[in-house]
Design a protein that fits this description.
It is a single chain. The strands form 2 sheets. An 8-stranded mixed beta sheet has the order 6-5-4-3-7-10-9-8, sandwiched between helices. 38% of the residues lie in helices and 18% in strands. The chain is an alpha+beta fold and 276 residues long. The protein contains 7 helices and 10 strands. The relative contact order is 0.16. The chain binds zinc ion (ZN). Zinc ion binds next to loops.
């Protein structure tokens, strides 16, 4: 399935992709099409992350900044609080403004979603996509006094020096200022461990934010399982991590597309209503 040939020459991974991994849907050019594409992909993310068991109840939230379909500015596309993630569709997603008020759709966003996602974007305007979950293994690490994600597995490498840690739990995020505080802790990283709470993934694309959450959970799971064996864990040497990450970093977006769109195609067969 992979249109990839990779040869390791010394430390240089040489690859030739024959093509990018195509989106499994088509939309027209322009604001309406861009808005529609974001709706399809965000709805697929809710459904896909639910299938993976990375969500909790009707809490946790995913968002993406999109142009309004009518071209009148930009809004945050987010889930309607109270819907199960299996109920999310492209059309029942909400658009909210910078005050958290709904400007398109029926219902309200979770107040914590507005505070966390909008607050982070005040600090990180490049965070087009933000996904927040309480996924179990990564959240378990976030609840440790030393929450560091260790380089125990090759899945860990994509997060090398790319995780920020908030170890000062301050309760539910019920004010925009708390989201801004989280944004300042996040800094230039793309993953945030929220102490006694959960994790945040920020990215420029929905596929990358999705893929990072998946691999973050797998990396955290490997760390937790390895630590539970009561034997010494063999960490990847720190001196190796940077070069290893350099070797794959320019491929991560294509890996993310391949993974995300494969999930999308499967969802289209089993839960086709998500595209409505
Ligand atoms: Zn949360």
């Amino acid at each position: 399935m992979w249109a990839l040939s990779a040869l390791r020459r010394g430390r240089t991974l040489v690859r030739t992709f024959t093509s990018a991994y195509p989106k499994p849907y088509t939309v027209p050019e322009g604001n309406w099409g861009t808005n529609r594409a974001a709706r399809l992909e965000l709805a697929a993310s809710f459904r896909g992350l639910d299938k993976l068991g990375l969500n909790e109840g009707v809490c946790n939230h995913l968002s993406v900044m999109v142009p309004r379909a009518d071209g009148q500015g930009e809004t945050m596309l987010v889930g309607h609080y109270g819907l199960h993630w299996q109920e999310v569709t492209a059309s029942n997603l909400l658009e909210v403004d910078w005050t958290g008020q709904t400007v398109q759709g029926e219902g309200k966003a979770d107040v914590t979603a507005a505070c966390i996602h909008l607050g982070i974007r005040h600090i990180r305007p490049d965070a087009k996509v933000i996904m927040h979950t309480h996924q179990p293994y990564a959240t378990a690490l976030a609840c440790m006094k030393d929450p560091r994600l260790l380089m125990v597995h090759q899945n860990s490498l994509r997060f090398y020096q790319n995780v920020a840690y908030d170890t000062s739990y301050t309760g539910f995020a019920l004010a925009l200022e708390e989201g801004k505080r989280l944004g300042r802790v996040l800094g230039e990283k793309n993953i945030l461990f929220m102490g006694n709470h959960g994790v945040v993934s920020v990215a420029k694309t929905i596929s990358m934010a999705f893929d990072n959450l998946y691999y973050l959970e797998r990396a955290a799971m490997m760390q937790v399982l390895a630590a539970g064996m009561e034997k010494e864990v063999a960490l990847i040497p720190d001196s190796e991590c940077g070069p290893m990450l350099d070797a794959i970093s320019d491929m991560l977006q294509e890996y993310a597309d391949a993974h995300f769109y494969s999930n999308y195609r499967i969802l289209r067969k089993s839960q086709p209503e998500f595209e409505l």
